[in-house]
Amino acid sequence: MVELVCADPAIYRIRLPFANVGAGETNCHVLHDHGQWLIVDAGAAGLGNARRLQTALRELGVDFGACQVMLTHGHFDHAGVLPALLSASVPLHLSPQAVAAREAVRLRRTQEGFRREMRDMGASSEDARGYGACNAETAVFPAGRFAYRPVADGDEISVGRCRFRVMETPGHTPDHLCFYEPDRGILFAGDHVLPATTPAVDAHPDGVDGLGLYLCHMRRVRDLPVRLALFGHGDPERDRATLAARIDAIVARKRSRVQAVLAFLCERKGATGQEVARCALAGLSDASWRATRPMARYYFMLEALVVLRHLCATGRVERLATDGRAALFRPR
Predict the structure, then answer these.
(1) What is the spatial distance between Cα 128 and Cα 123, in angstroms, rounded to a whole number?
(2) What secondary structure letter does DSSP report for 227?
């Protein structure tokens, strides 16, 4: 259950299950150096994770009086179990956006806005409600519940001999952070880079081009002299060239999806967002689309929204508002 992934400093991995579009595992990493402890991400609530994690931390002998927590982002599979783990005295380092954007009232407004966008993409009212439920991946952070320590790009977090540099890497989520230790080349990458899957990009609030931000910050991480990359999901990577190749592959995949949408719009001379999701991204007939599980359709709709925002932001596509019907997107 507890796996040593680095000897100096001592870093352990604890894998915790989650269930969403499928079943998977999230990595909780625990670092111990010179009497100080660091926990990076935690895991999903439920599924016995609180018991699993508490047992593992007891086995490691974690001293919460000399412990800090770093959160890469606030998705449920990285932060959901925190209320069962942390007392209010343990410092929790995270993006200021993670606290503000995940307060219950703001979360409701964000979800209402997402449902409206799904309707504007061409989804029915029923489907838009379902996609909104699928989009509720964020953990609620109550005001005053944790010892919040908001951090920004360039800040340092000291743990024993280690000095972790905060890197703002929005894209997968608006609040995503990576943590990099330059002297030892250790990178806690969260879900910014994953070794086996291409990370999704969230629908950022206020129409922000999240995909553009993601691609920009992928280049930034690629240039780091990393000797050990630790991910939110999957096994560590110790070879810098392999990590760079993986980043290149993710970027190429994202760009290929953008090109597929643009080619579809050029051929059709315009389409709704749902048509983009169904035809250009999922490659499904209308009947097959309706037979597809709502969670899978949601991910195609989310990707279509994110790609269309990016194409509009970069001037290659324009969005045409229609009276009472779904918006149309066409190439400029």
Answers:
(1) 6
(2) S
Tens digits of per-residue pLDDT, 228-285? Answer: 999 999 999 999 999 999 999 999 999 999 999 999 999 998 899 999 999 999 999 9
What percentage of the chain has pLDDT greater than the value 90? Answer: 81
- Residue of 30, 38, 42 lying closest to 84 (CA atoms): 42
Full set of structural domains in the chain with CATH: 2-102+138-238 (3.60.15.10), 107-136+252-331 (no CATH)
pLDDT computed for residue 96 by the predictor: 87
For 105, phi then psi, to 5°, come to -65, -45
pLDDT in tens, 274-297: 999 999 999 999 999 999 999 999
**Is the four-CA dihedral 209, 210, 213, 219 of positive or negative sign?**
negative
- With H, G, I as helix, E, B as strand and everything else as coil, classify residue 67: strand
Model pTM greater than 0.85? yes
What's the rounded Cα separation, in Å, for the pair 121 and 99?
Answer: 29
Cα–Cα distance list, 185 to 32, 173, 182, 229 (Å)? 16, 24, 5, 8
Placement of tokens 């719009």 in the chain: 265
Nearest to 141 by CA among 87, 82, 225: 82
Q: Tokens at residue 299, please?
A: 């991910």
The DSSP output letter for 183 is T
Residues 328 and 212: their CA atoms lie apart, in Å, by 21
Going by their DSSP bridges, the two strands 36-40 and 23-33 should be labelled as antiparallel
Q: How far apart are CA 226 and CA 223, in angstroms?
A: 9
CA 296 to chain CA mean position, Å: 17
